[in-house]
Amino acid sequence: MLYAPEDAVYHILASSPRVARYVGFEIFPVAVPKGAEFPFIVYRRANITRDQSLGGPMFVPQVNLQIASWAMTHDEARRLADEVRLSLDGYIGAIGGITIQGIRLVSETDDYLDPIAVGAQLPPAYETRQLYQIQWTESSV
Question: Is 4:98 a contact under the CB 8 Å cutoff?
C-alpha cells in the first residue's frame, strides 16, 4: 500500500490546535458518519495526475483535494475554513511517513444545505469548500 497525501492532511489538521478547537478529531474522508455533530471537516480527492518521463513514472504525483468545513452558521464555517487554510496553505515537509513537496490553496466557495430542499434529516448547515493542490513524493509502506 502507498502512503497518500490525505493521510498527511489528516495529521496536519488533527494536530493543529487552531483546527482542533473547532472540530477536535471530527475530520472525515468522503462521507460523514451518522451521529457526527457540527462543526466538522470532510475531505475527498477531486483528481490526481502522475507525470511520466522517458524512464517511466516520476513518483511525484499531484492531487487536487477538496476540503469542506461544515458548521451551523456561516461565520463559524468561514472561521473554521480560515484555520484550515492557515494550517495547510504553503505547507512543505514530512509528516506521517509522507513527504509533501507543497500544498497550495487553489479556490474557495461557500454553500448552504437546506434540508427541506434535499429531503435530508439534518438541520440547516453552512459549508466552506476549499480546493488544494498537493504535490508529494510517492512511497510505499
Answer: yes
Q: Quote the domain boundaries for residue 112.
A: 5-137
For the purposes of burial, counting CB atoms within 10 Å of the CB of 139, is it exposed (0-12), middle (13-18) or buried (19 or more)? exposed
- Tens of pLDDT along 31-86? 998 888 999 999 999 887 776 666 666 566 889 999 999 999 999 999 999 999 99
Q: Which three cell numbers mark 74?
A: 456561516
Domain count, the chain: 1
Handedness of CA 65, 42, 88, 5 (dihedral sign): negative
Q: Is 117 exposed, middle or buried (0-12, 13-18, 19+ CB in 10 A)?
A: exposed
Give me the half-sphere count of Cα atoms (radius 13 Å) on the Cβ side of residue 89. Answer: 12
Give the domain CATH number at 20: 3.30.70.1700
Examine the pLDDT at 1 and tell me if it is beyond 90: no
pTM of this prediction? 0.86
Give the closest residue to 4 by CA, choosing from 136, 101, 106, 132.
Answer: 136
